[in-house]
Amino acid sequence: MSLRKDVSLDELARVGNVAQFVSFSPDANRPRQEFCRVAGFDANQRFPTLADALRSLIAQSPDGTINLRSFTPDSPRSRDFHYGLSDLTKAEALVRGMSAEGLFVIANETVDVSDGGVSGVIQGGVAEFAPDDTPRCVEKGGTASLPLDWALALIETVYGIPVETVDAGRGRLEFSIHPKPRGWRRTHTLMWEYEGSDSAPAMAAVKWPNRFSRLIGDKTFGLLIAHAMGLPVPRTTCISRRIAPFTFGEATSSKEVWTRTCPREQEPGRFTTIKGWLDPFRLLNAEDPSGEAISAVLSQAAVPATFAGAAITDARGEVVVEGAAGEGDRFMLGQKVPERLPRSVVGDVEAIYHRTKERLGPVRFEWVHDGKRVWIVQLHKGATDSAASTLVPGEADRWETFDVSSGLEELRNLLHRLPSGVGVRIRGEVGLTSHVADLLRKHRRPARLTETSAA
Questions:
Q1: Is the overall model pTM greater than 0.85, yes or no?
Q2: SS3 (DSSP) at 248
Q3: DSSP labels, 262-320
């Protein structure tokens, strides 16, 4: 038999932080206080009157508002629900009215789910979460799904605060993380509901883009996953639109930095990546004034590059490693052709690839080799369908030829102009792992290298 909702909250509050609340049972004459957790008061403090209880709760709520949730003893599902109340007289009248109908009522502090934090569920060794939502977000699409240790490490890195939850074991724990201290214990983690379970351990479905990766940017999320796996990631500071700046990764031997725009979703070569420091706020305003495309700007420690390039999983499921001597920006833009790489460099990149694929499945990443080790500077999940001279498979009614020397932006414009049924033949040398190939794959446009290019 499941516990009544307010009884369950009282039990959870004994071991962790819960949103401040006062609960009431129906009474023939007036609502009767049952349980409470209000900051500054003892657990289950008995207030003289209903008005005193609600007044104290409103006063201690960070946003100065409360919610009212009603239910019946035989069903925890909410009946009447009232959100964001600040008027004491109105709140008291609503509680009395619902109590007169025989309903239990829980008054709790209003918690802003759009404060830049996340909500989600921990169960069976997996954490799933999303921003701008309640823990019920897991019933929708697009939640981030990670092994629990990765999720805790990632959240603590991003928010700079420890995640304080009980050990859910095989049970199901609903939680939320907030930049502003909240709840009875005034910490950053709230626990909402716990249900025991004997279900088997779950498997995380690690994939992005997801709702959280869009909040911090595609590049940021991929690098955080690499960092959580223990892969070498250059020290990176993320200046986000909605979250305070945070830093992760390892120091390199260089004092220089790269400034990288970080779109919500991967946009190969579209936005600025430049060696040196740029004003991130001016950059955001110049390249994305509406705030809809770029989530953040990254300042990333430079790696003294002997070789740089990218690795992908091709159509046969095999790793393809390409690159060139020096820094990899011109190679990725298709302005520099792939070069023959030293066997030792290829071996180091392949070792990182296989280590990453073992945990994530097929992956794509950009790398830099400093002569001693490989560094990951971008990580994406998923295989490609490229092979040999076929960048994107498929047939076309006719083919348009594009000279790679025209540049990535001209290719982007061409892809937007072309009607359906038209494929692209690429003239000039370009790598299967370059942004040129990536852009063609993103648009799912049949694309092949010309015979001269393939040769």
A1: no
A2: strand
A3: EESS--TTTS-EEES---HHHHHHHH-TTSSSEEEEEEEE----SEEEEEEE-TTS-EE
**Helical H runs in 1-87?**
5-13, 50-60
Q: In what order do the strands lie in the sheet with 104-109?
A: 32-37, 21-25, 104-109, 66-71, 81-85
Residue 346 lies in a domain: no
Between the two ends of the chain, the Cα-to-Cα distance in Å is 71
User: Final residue of a domain: which of 301, 326, 350?
Assistant: 301
| Domain that includes residue 434, residue range | 390-454
- What are the tens digits of pLDDT across the range 32-80? 999 999 999 999 999 999 999 999 999 999 999 999 999 887 765 667 8
Tell which of 79, 109, 139 closes a domain.
109
148-159 helix and 218-228 helix, angle to the nearest 10 degrees: 120
Residues 6+ apart with CB under 8 A from 68: 80, 81, 82, 85, 91, 94, 95, 98, 105, 106, 107
Q: Total domain count for the chain? A: 4
Sheet containing 118-123: order of strands: 144-147, 126-131, 118-123, 172-182, 187-195
Does residue 201 surpass a pLDDT of 70? no
Q: Is 228 part of a structural domain of the chain?
A: yes
Residue owning tokens 């690795």: 311
Q: 253 and 289, same structural domain?
A: yes
Regarding whether 27 and 98 lie in a shared domain, the answer is yes
**pLDDT for position 166:** 66
Which pLDDT value is given to residue 1? 44
For residue range 376-391, what is the model confidence (pLDDT) as tens digits? 999 998 877 666 667 7
321 three-state secondary structure? strand
CA–CA gap between residue 375 and residue 279 (Å, rounded): 25
